[in-house]
Amino acid sequence: MPPEPPVEAIDFESRCIYDPPRPPHYACWTCLFPGDDGRWYVAFEEVSWPDPPLPPSSVDHLYHMGLPRGYDKSQYLLEAVVIESTDNLQTWRAISRQPYRFQHTVGLYGASARTRDGRFLRGTWPAYCFDGSRQPNEILDVSDDDGKTWTHTGPFHDSHFASHAHRMRVLNDGTVVLCVAFRPRWGTPQHPIRHCTNLEATGESQMTFWTSFDHGRTWNGPQQIYHGQTVSETDFVELPCGDLLFINNSIFAFPGRQIVYRDGQRFTPGPMECAKGNVHFDDAPFDSPDCNVVPEAVCLTDDGVLVGCMRDGYYFYSDDLGRTWHPLPGTPAPDSVEAHQVYQPSMSVLDDGRIACTGHCGGDDPIHHSEGEDVERATQRHRVFLHTFRVHVRRKSADTEFLIDRVRSEGYERWPNAYDITLLCDGEPLADKPLEFWYAERYQPGHDSYGKNSLEHRMAAGGTSIHVRTDANGQARVELPEYDLIDDPHLSYQFVVRFNPDGSDGDYKPGQSPQFEFYANWAPDEPM
Fold first, then answer.
1. CATH 3.30.300 is right for the domain spanning 401-519
2. Which of helix, strand or coil describes residue 412?
3. pLDDT per residue over 6-33, tens digit each?
4. Where are the domains of the chain?
5. Helix (H, G, I), strand (E, B) or coil at 13
């Protein structure tokens, strides 16, 4: 029998929690978020066909937006809806319904929150406004009366930019964090329409986050993350230490993660770390046990396991804080009906430890409806679904670390090209384990001074791998005697040590050392 998976989902349930009653039966772009006293909320967009239809978009607006045919919503009634559950997500009732005149979602896509003092906050996308009644930088709406009325708070950021509010969460101490993607405002000679890009810019769409320590009344930001990357959507979790772990998902060019370190009211981004192999959504092998797709919505269990979801409802887990990802057994198969019920997912951990994920069935689909048309055939019913399940952790793979020292010759007159490598787990040596020592010489294929390419790409391009095993003390020595005869003081080589890179040893997480670079001819300068 195959071994039981180390992590799996159990007690999986799927329910429709909102079925829009009016044609064309279109509800989409959900956001699941908690309130106080066990209350939970789902915000979403509902589209219905008014009688008579609302005024259509101008030709000029359609041109600048660059929408495909079938996506102009201007003649529909668009409403931002909030539903509430007070009985552990069993039943739901609508508590807020607010019309708006934007082409795209308001406060959804995960950008809604309930503050500790009882206010509703939602980020908006006013750059998509039909009639110019809102400026592109007026992105925040607030309700102080449980969603009965909403007001916008005025300009939120610099007017040079249009922005997409994408994710908002309230941290354990009540701090509100809002993720906002910036791009240059269109309608100028430099950016005349929405679908144009400055090819000389590195990361023209910038992901940022803002923080509020007074329940959304004042904000600090923007703080940029994923520097130099074009990213418009993200998610994050709060770690037990208070730091934030941001996830850059596989829709984008360089999926991976980034830790933002917290010191009181100061947040300092660490470096972005790319995921192994840079696997992308379009070519992701979802049925592979080591596909390493980085999901777009994430949450963190009490066991320290990250659980994530990728459109259309493909679930993954990571037990190393997002360095590697694996399909989550016990969740719907990619070809199942349930897998297509939570497009554009939004996730949280419930008070009882269950994972909850909301989304809408279907995809980013056009709306087709005209008078007398069979609406059931005109468009798929876009209903709001809720998935819940528990995560059963049978075992967590152990962390490993390396100690790497360049061997010193007697008397420390020079350092030969030899290295002692120690493999440790919880401070104890790991004996009889295979290690891979890969190195690439300067000016040769595989060498990369500035981190332009992934390690996998570089290893495929060149370099040399040496395979060794640790001894009873968890140590192995690698020698490169060909470099001991080098006279050139500038010739260097880079190397990386890896353990269990393919995850075949399920007891341990894949281990990889930092990249080291040493000069071949290395010795102390002689005294003057």
1. no
2. helix
3. 999 999 999 999 999 999 999 999 999 9
4. 7-393, 401-519
5. strand
